[in-house]
Amino acid sequence: MFRYAIRRCMQMLVTIFIGATIVFFVFTTVPGDPAMLYAGEQPSQEYVDKLRHEFGLDQPIGIQYGNFLLGLINGKLGYSYFTSKPVAPVLIYRTLNSFKLSAVAITLAILVGVPAGMAAALKRGSPFEILIRGAVILGISLPAFWLALLLVLLFSVHWNILPAARLESWQSYVLPALVLSVFSTAFIARMTSSLLLEVNLEDYIRTAYAKGLPGRVVVLKHALKNVLIPLVTLIGMRFGYMLTGAVVTETVFAWPGLGRMVVEAIGQRDFPFIRGCFVVTVLVFSVLNLSTDLGYAFLDPRVRYK
Questions:
Q1: Which residues does 192 contact at the CB level (< 8 Å), separation at least 6?
Q2: Total domains in the fold of the chain
Q3: What is the domain-level CATH number for residue 134?
Q4: Where does the chain have alpha helices with state H?
Q5: Predicted TM-score (pTM) of this structure
Q6: Is residue 31 part of a domain?
Q7: Domain of 186, in residue numbers
Q8: Is the predicted pLDDT of residue 306 greater than 60, yes or no?
Q9: Looking at the DSSP assignment, which residues form a beta bridge with residue 79?
Q10: Residue 32 and residue 268: Cα distance in Å, rounded?
Q11: Is the pLDDT of residue 50 over 90?
């Protein structure tokens, strides 16, 4: 497994390099001049040329790409065009905020979604299963921005129980984590139920029931172990989407996270921040994929890496 992990780490570095290269050239060729945006309305050409020189935009594309790769290797992603702050510290701060919010949301999704899916599989055909399936469809269908605005209106405006925006205390996590976890909770519940129903058709499950074991014991000790691998893959991917794609949630709640930072950077054509955000996105999914693959061997002894 150690050699497999080393090989996957090397593949991860190649993936990050390819992703960073694509991001660099895509956002270098998009319409919009950061110098013109920074200069304001009706600036003089001399002032625009001065800004382009300060930003390094007047250099050949090859030199810009080389400086970008050098900074990526050194962990220095340059300076913001608009705030003149170094990108790396701000990016780390925003990523940590998104990570904490996503960790709370995915934990909530697991604690609610997995038991709900198991209950739906155990109570198949009952009114309880119909209730869970209705809640799952509702959770998947609800728009995140609508739910976020509704919760802000109820809990922050009318009842004044929870803060509506900004990162102030643990209470600030409640509403954005709830909004962020709704879709994942419903999706995990649906997949857990479907996987358990599929496993219940296996011969060893029928044998366990024929031996007189209670349904709860059969599900927990026999069926659940065989759905862990696809479930872990699903949870890992959902965590990655939460961490890097919570644009709507972070925007509504003014959360200082990675998703909101991407929106702000794209609107300002702040290329150093844009590149840094997408490099972090590639890194996050690469690490999650590696962690998920390595976790298979611990969940299923039949899995071996050679």
A1: 113, 114, 116, 117, 118, 121, 227, 231
A2: 1
A3: 1.10.3720.10
A4: 2-29, 34-39, 45-55, 61-74, 87-122, 127-141, 144-151, 174-199, 203-210, 215-218, 228-245, 247-252, 258-268, 271-299
A5: 0.82
A6: no
A7: 89-299
A8: no
A9: 86
A10: 9
A11: no
Per-residue pLDDT tens over the stretch 156-209: 888 888 887 777 778 888 899 999 999 999 999 998 888 888 887 778 788 887
CA distances from 77 to 17, 40, 51, 54 (A): 14, 25, 19, 16
Q: 190 in a domain, yes or no? A: yes
Distances (CA, A) of 234 to 16, 42, 190, 268, 296: 22, 51, 11, 34, 13
Residue 57: φ, ψ to 5° = -80, -10
Q: Which residues, 6+ apart, have CB-to-CB distance to 175 below 8 Å?
A: 148, 151, 152, 155, 156, 162, 163, 164, 253
Cα dihedral 224, 226, 230, 235, rounded to 10, equals 30
Task: State percent of the chain over pLDDT 70.
Answer: 95
When computed from its CA atoms, the radius of gyration of the chain, rounded to whole angstroms, is: 24
56 assigned to some structural domain: no
Say which DSSP state 86 is in. B
User: Residue 300: pLDDT above 70?
Assistant: no
Domain for residue 164, yes or no? yes
